[in-house]
Amino acid sequence: MPTISPIGRSTPRVDGPLKVSGRAQYASDFHFPGTLYAVPVEATIASGRLVKLDTAAAQKMPGVRAILHRDNIGQIFRSVQGPGFEGIVDERRPPFEDDVVRYYGQYVALAVADTFECAKAAADAVRATYAKDKHNVDPDLQADDEPDVVATTFAPTKRVQSERGDAGSAFANAPVKLDQIYVTPTETHNPIELQATTAIWDDSMLTIYEESQGVFNLQGVLAQMFGLPKENVRVVTRFVGSGFGSKLWPWTHCALAVAAARQLRKQTVGHRPRTQQRVRLGATTEGKLVSLQHDYVNHHSMLDNYHEDCGEATAFHYSVPNLRVTFGRARRNVGSPTPMRGPGAVPGLYATESAMNELADQLKIDPVRLRVLNEPKIDESLGIPFSSRHLLECFELGAEKFGWSKRTPEIGSMKRDGLTLGWGMAGCAWLAARFPAEANVQLRDDGTARVASGTQDIGTGTYTVLAQLASEKTGVPLDKIEVALGDTSLPEGPTSGGSMVTGSMVPAVFEAADKAIESLLTIATSGPGSPFQKRKPTDLAFEGGRVFVKADGPAGGVPFADVLRRANVRLVTGSGKSEATFGNPKPKFSTHSFGGHFVEVTWQPEIARLRVSRVVTVIDAGRILNPLAGRNQIEGAVVMGIGMALFEYTSYDRQSGAPINSNLADYVVAVNADVPPIDVHFVDFPDKEINALGARGIGEIGLAGIAAAITAAVHHATGVRVRELPVKIEHLLG
Ligand code: MOS
């Protein structure tokens, strides 16, 4: 039995051995006798109509079972959003619902065959004829004409997101002004595990194996789309080869797999939309902000209503008396955007943190100092205190670890080994809240325990953290704890989104463990042959896996397995449930995670070679339950941030409207060779408003702000200000 708490200890992944030995089963690893394979036929126009589908040749190919399309797929209903956080889908139109093509790559038919290869060949053999309309993939985003309140994925949203004071006149009268436009491109998630669904119909029961970040949401949506009671749909997600948001909400491939499976007994899945953001800052000559205006536009698809909330952090991040944050959207012939790691705040903070860095240069003030000068005491947008905000401590530690005080601000003034150095920094923030969560904990007569919740481990360490939480309460060592997750037959767990799983699970698992222990103590006092037979449950205590009489202290304790065995009880079980704080309209505290990035780039103008050479990131995410897994998350986010700043963009061809680099070869992400030493630190201040351990989530926070720190470093080295990501060598050649 562990004598030291597993909480706060660097704990290797409990699911690591399964993964490295290839025994972890991902969605497309489930093979059943008679499994058929389906490959979609994708539209090759971006706007227009499908007028004819010639399937004759495809149907005659060996191994082909069916070519499914609008006329023979059978009914697929439209899902609707339920009250609260239910029924969420970004691409709402059921596949094949009409013959209109609204984006390049939209599914128009589905080839089903005995093998994947046959299905692919058959899909390629389907001939589609289109009536083409003019498409619009214009990268210049001007907001469409929309009312003041618009529909979004979640709820109707005011386009003036936040307003205080009079930002317009304060800006007009400000002694120092900055007015710039920042652009972030379309980015595609590209997790290593591609999208896939394995669907099985057994009479009226539908089971699907899917790489989902939210099995319960998917269950609800599929039940609606196929007209089934929810209990007849089971969604299983044992492992996810990363999601970054691309697997948050259901996509059309899943409904198609289900529809194909229904009759006969597979990657176009969202993207972070392009954004165009105008930031206006007004300040005094000493560097105190007097006005902040952030007006942004994101592209979205022809039918759906996606809002990339770039203003997520803007209204509370700085102390400023006059502020206005607004958004607009521009419809384009593209597939529906969807959340991508750190949706909203990541592109948003790129813009606002870049503007702060530019303002610091304009004022000739150190960028850390400018932030310190504008650090708020409370959340000024809501007029409430922060539950726990230690941004300045992040800057202090980061600056020290990085050696920031040695920075000389003049462009190109710093050199090392013949290279020009650039140093930049930025801050970050990300929401912290809880989704509703349920969990179940069992204590068993062999001294093992089980913790179960229908949440998911998207590669972030949920298996391990759940084991740590159960171990903390029950005293059972980690290797004797079974963790069950990713299945709608388990107690309802939170969607793996918004970095909220850990924070949400703490109260539910703790309550479940307490209930199991309560039940154990009752058995201890009632079972024949129990050493505690004459006691009342309230006389007893449980600690480190042992039951003992409070008055006698733990020395005379009995292991819980003995208590159960003597009573001939296999196991005791307890259930726990915790409420959401996410979406609370009247919160008492403003709860967020914070952090700071310090970045060094090296620049060799002779050969136009730019490298990120050093990163120090310090994060305030409350108490860190597992520093090893936590550090992994931030390192991964920084790697993705290097990609965001220097490489990633999905390019829509103006001629065809096609996303022309829609494959892993042409869509460039950061790889090992691009990644320098990343020095991650946590300030570790528990946030008691979020849960008993004070643990907020980690993950997305690491990607916020990093691109602004990198572009500031690029400017410091080269003198070139890039305001449209990614930074390309062409920009630097002037
Ligand atoms: Mo994250 S975009 O909530 O997977």
Question: Keywords for this structure?
Answer:
734 residues, alpha+beta, five-stranded mixed sheet, globular, binds dioxothiomolybdenum(VI) ion
Briefly note the structural class of the backbone.
alpha+beta
Q: What does the overall shape look like?
A: globular
Q: Strands across the major sheet, in which order?
A: 9-16-15-14-10
Overall mean pLDDT:
95
Which percent bin holds the helix content? 10-25%
Give the arrangement of secondary structure elements.
Blueprint: H1 16-20, E1 37-42, E2 48-54, H2 56-59, E3 64-68, E4 100-101, E5 107-113, H3 116-125, E6 127-132, E7 149-150, E8 157-158, E9 160-164, H4 167-172, E10 176-184, E11 197-202, E12 205-210, H5 215-225, E13 233-236, H6 252-263, E14 275-283, E15 289-300, H7 314-317, E16 322-331, H8 345-363, H9 367-373, H10 391-402, E17 414-416, E18 419-431, E19 437-444, E20 449-452, H11 462-474, E21 481-484, H12 501-526, E22 540-543, E23 546-549, E24 558-559, H13 560-566, E25 571-578, E26 592-604, E27 609-620, H14 627-646, E28 678-682, H15 706-718, H16 729-732
Parallel strand pairs: 12-13, 15-16, 20-21, 27-28
Antiparallel strand pairs: 1-5, 2-4, 2-6, 3-5, 7-8, 9-16, 10-14, 11-12, 14-15, 17-18, 18-26, 19-20, 19-25, 22-23, 23-24, 26-27
Helix pairs in contact: 8-15, 11-12, 14-15
